Amino acid sequence: MNTMRNGFPEGFYWGGAIAANQAEGAYLEDGKLPSTADIKARGFFGGLRRDADYYPTHRAIDFYHRYKEDLALFGEAGFNIFRTSINWTRIFPTGEEDVPNEKGLQYYEDLFREAKKNGMTMMITISHYETPLNLVDKYGGWDNRKFIDFYLKFVRTIATRFKGMVKFWLTFNEIGNAAVIPICWDAAGLHPESENLEQRMYQAAHHQFVASALATKMIHEIDPDAQVGAMIAYKTVYPYTCKVEDVKAAEAAKRKEYFFSDVQARGYYPAYIWRYFEENGIRIAMERGDEEIIRAYPIDFITFSYYRSRVVSADYEEPAEKTTDTLEGLVNPHLPKTDWGWTVDPDGLRLALNELYDRYQLPLFVVENGLGARDTVEADGRIHDSYRIDYMSAHIKAMREAVKDGVDLRGYTMWGPIDIVSNGTGQMSKRYGIVYVDLDDDGNGTGNRSKKDSFAWYQQVIASNGEIL
């Protein structure tokens, strides 16, 4: 007889997540060449420029040289999983080389061994918002089918080299953002001011679906013990009012969000997307066998980022506040906001987990969730971030309720356990970590690490398997 789970299962994965391009720095060191992430001046809101006076990610927090120190801190906190990414241009600097860069491979091998020494299982995002800039300059982005072969060469190389060292692989970070402006640059190497942009974005997504399916096949063959998952950006969607028009708009927004996980998890293009393509003049060029490949190699599990919910209305003239630094437009007037105007909605995470599990019946991981806030260092060096504790506590409680609801939730990797450069704004002052890094928005500071109050709190959460919050 089945009974309700009262808490997180034994063996639950607790940890944190970062991205190589936001943390490593050393952007031209040991053979690495520029990626698409390296020309973003102060985040994507700062524009794509090759002549800016400062790029925060070029130095970032120097995780490239200080990873042993940082992993020791994560181990002290009790992490049993760590999610990061492999910077493509550390392995294939231009993307076109036949022989990989050994220094890049050795760096990640050393990093993974150090993580294991500190008690952590590795979860690796293969492509996390960085593509060799040379490939984009020469071939135009993921709407060019050539990118599938470049990507698969990268996948084969790292899956072979790191066989037995990586348990969980994620093929693309927030794959749905290939069809979101301006993040299409991050996710697919498409300039947000390109002509025929929506056509290009969905064509790029198709090539990523094929690449993801073939990568899943390849990784399973190389390392049968490894699992391959999708990673999507998920925002629970509410209609702004109970007007039928708003409800329909919200349902349409949900479907655009579900499209990417539908293809990767179910193995086929859902019927509803063809109407959208027809009404918007989008024509997907498929080669013979593409649909069979996507159907044959679906992912094993689903991971997602959750920071906030969003509100959709058919009529944007409704009396609602509009955001200044997000992409959704309307803000829910019933929810509090962060320092950067993002709504805080832990109940939305419980809904997200139930919606995704009801839809796919696949294991789930929450692999990004956290609070970007301004932290104050007190005279004694301490950082009292009770607001971060409150945020994380509420969201972990929501996860626990979803587990009671019957959701097969396997793990939680907060974003990001150490302060890193914001992808959106390029700021260090938008801090997520339980570990503070002494750097400001202009790169000034010692780079030294120190624990915030949230460090000891999260350590206790992990030690109690989510019982003490």
TrEMBL record:
GO CC entries: cytosol
Gene Ontology biological-process entries: carbohydrate catabolic process
Keywords: Glycosidase, Hydrolase
Active-site residue numbers: E368
Any one GO MF annotation of this record: beta-glucosidase activity
Hydrolase in keyword set: yes
Coiled coil stretches, renumbered: none
InterPro entries: GH, GH_1_N_CS, Glyco_hydro_1, Glyco_hydro_1_AS
Transmembrane stretches, start-end: none
Highest taxon above the source species: Bacteria
UniProt cross-references to PANTHER family, sorted A to Z: 6-PHOSPHO-BETA-GLUCOSIDASE ASCB-RELATED, GLYCOSYL HYDROLASE
Family affiliation: Belongs to the glycosyl hydrolase 1 family.
Protein name listed in UniProt: 6-phospho-beta-glucosidase
